[in-house]
Amino acid sequence: MSNTPENPPRTTALVTGGTGGIGAAIVRQLAAQGHNVVLTYRSNAEAAAKLVAEVEELGVRGAAHSADLCDADRLAALVAATTRDFGDLSILVHAAGPHIPMVHLSRVEPSTYAQHLNDEATAFFTVVQACLPALRTAKGSVVAVTTAATDRYPVRDGLSAGTKGAVEALVRGFAAEEGRYGVRFNAVGPGMLTDGMAERLISSENLDQRALDVTMSRIPLQKFGTAVDIAEAVCFLASDKAGFVTGQKLNVDGGYTV
Question: What gap in Å lies between CA 46 and CA 62, rounded to an integer?
Answer without folding.
Answer: 14
